[in-house]
Amino acid sequence: MKKNSIRRWIILCFTAVLILSMAASAAANYFENSNDIMEDYGQLAETCAYVASNLFLYQWNNDEVLGSTGTEAYADAANSLRGLCKTYKLDTLSIYRVDPSVPARYYYFYVAPGMEENQELQHKYALRTIPTAELLPGEEALINGSPEMQLEAGDQLPDDKIIWVSPVNDLNGSAVALISMVCDIGPIRNRIQTDFLRDILPFSMSLLVGLLILLHLVQRRIIRPIGILSDEMRQFALDSRKKPEPLKLRSGDEIGEIAEAFEKMTDDISTYVNSIEKLTQKETEINTQLELGRRVQCGMVPERTARSGDGWHVNAITRPAKTVGGDFYDCFLLDDSRVCVVMGDVSGKGIGAAISMAMVKTVIREKLTAGFSPAETLNRTNDQIAARNPENQFATAFVAALNTKTGELLYCNAGHNPPLVLREECAFMNPEPGIALGVFENAGLKNASYTLSPGQGILLYTDGVTEAVSPQRQFFGEERLREAVGAFSAGENAAEETVLRLIGAVDDFCGGNEAFDDMAVLALVYRGGEGTWQSLPVELAAFDTVRRAVFTAAGDSHEIRQALLACDEALANIVYYSGASTLDFSCKTDGDRLCVSFSDNGIPFDQTAAVLENREFERLDRGGMGLHLIRRCASSMRYERKEGRNILTLFFPLPSSSEHPNLWHPGELPAEI
Amino acid sequence: MTVEKTMDGSTAVLHLEGWLDTQNAPVLAEALNGLDDGVEKLVLDMEKLEYISSAGIRQIVTAYKEMNGALILKNLSTEVASVLHMTGLDKKLSIES
Predict the structure, then answer these.
(1) Residue A291 predicted with pLDDT over 70
(2) Pair A422, A458: CB distance under 8 Å
(3) Do the Cβ atoms of A490 and A418 come closer than 8 Å?
(4) What is the ipTM of this complex?
(5) A34-190: CATH, from 3.40.710.10, 3.40.630.10, 3.30.450.20, 3.30.450.40
(6) How far is A528 from chain B (nearest CA, A)?
(7) Which of residues 32-91 of B touch A (CB under 8 A)?
(8) Confidence (pTM)
């Protein structure tokens, strides 16, 4: 049996009740019985005392009887008393008077039923004064005038003895003598116990039987059903899908009600669990579809894009917040000298937005490639959407076409966020806001233009960036966007770095919260087409201008110092030997290299074709070393004679690309000169 | 660029500073021409020289010849040392760190 089972507690309680009630009834019974018995004995003693006192008063209280113990009269009287003693089952019986002043007792008679004992008592007490230490309390009471028989059961008596003391009153009511009756209590006790057992046993048995029946009922009606219920519950907890068998506990009592409630509950739960399973299955299917949609969308709007061409770079990132979204961007070459970038946001989220996005993006690209300007493209796209727009969805878009030769940016805005101009101090463009696509027909959007200098660019983004929310419920906003981009410098990977820096800043701002809205960011950097030509004086001092331009384009480093050495030498050669009167110069970075060009109107002079001869050290001061250094420092060179001009272009590796065969490395053998 | 001259007995020390490019090479040439005949040894301290072109190297070779080899280059920066290395001068000239 389990330590805490209800059954155990019930049995314990029953046992306690049984023992307590038996003890209580036994105590009550014992008390009553012993009282009854003592009363019976008391009455017998009183009768005995009455007979003895009458005999003493009226027959024996004279000198004839009490003169001496040897007389026949005294012996007759003593025998009569012995008869009384036997009749009333007394141990001893004595008649005496008390002298309380001594204190002492003067015995008239002292008899016992037994012959020997009687003779001994007669001999010892009869007609003698026996002093005593103190009187019994009953004796005191009688001397003081109490008319009632007194029971002595005090400390001075042996355990199994009791004494009744009764007065012998004369006609005046005064006690002339006392009668003391000593009785052995043993038989009385035996009788009390016998009576007690006789009374208590049947009572206990019936109580025990009653309790057993009760226990059985409790077991059958409460404990067993509860056990069945708890087993069923355990079973059900293991597998909530399976409906349990009916319990058959319809007893109609409270347990039955619980069982009914349990059956109903399990019924409900298993139905519920089964329907949840079905729902989960359905949700998994939907998620699979969404995932499929996301992959299709990723095909249309890749999460990362990096493209570049002669003089331009584009880098873009999109991040749909919920599997599929409405943000999109596009980037493609229109022809040799024009690159188009598109950034847009279709209202709403999820599949509906994704489908609309696919349509809007496709239409915009189709119009642009068909040769329409950004404004025409957006106007036509708008009309097309507005004509059939059952869900009243709308889209914002910014479309720009960059002339990669001139840096001219032709753009049109249809309600989209203003782009950020990437330059040393970035600032937002202030385009006509236009109107979102799909709202009204004939949007009347117009083209605008902006000219980018080499090394500048624009950053396009969706409102998912500016409306990103921090844990403190703040928006990211345009100012943080501008700060995140910082001072823009058109390095080799400037477009990618800018985009990543911005996304990183938004993520930090959101503090790890997944961005609520989807977002897209695109950076277009114009690096200059052929490079910008500037004219230089045909003199050695022009090197200062060259040096500034090279540092501006590519920074200062060991590699760039070596490039400058080649430029210095080339410039010196032009100044000394070409006889030119005009000189133009351009400098740009292109991919991983630096391109420096010199164009002069001097005599045809191909510095790349000059034959290098080995020279003795002593003749090094005569010149010729310059060409050697140019060859050593430039990774490649190109010479053209065009329209009466020498055009020399030197290419150098930029520091980020470390390996180059012509670079000097410590430990290499020095070149022969 | 600037050239500063200090004398130590018969040893002349030229402290070169800045860019010794083609247009600045004459500044060094002038300083070399300005040396007394009594100078027996020439030291070029290049600690602050950031850059050297072939024209500068030519001046150094000229000085080497005029001093009959009594020329010492001191405190070369990596940039300058690499150019001397490319032209093979580092094998011929006395270079002190």
Answers:
(1) yes
(2) yes
(3) no
(4) 0.90
(5) 3.30.450.20
(6) 29
(7) 51, 53-55, 57-59, 61-62, 65, 78-79, 82-83, 85-91
(8) 0.45
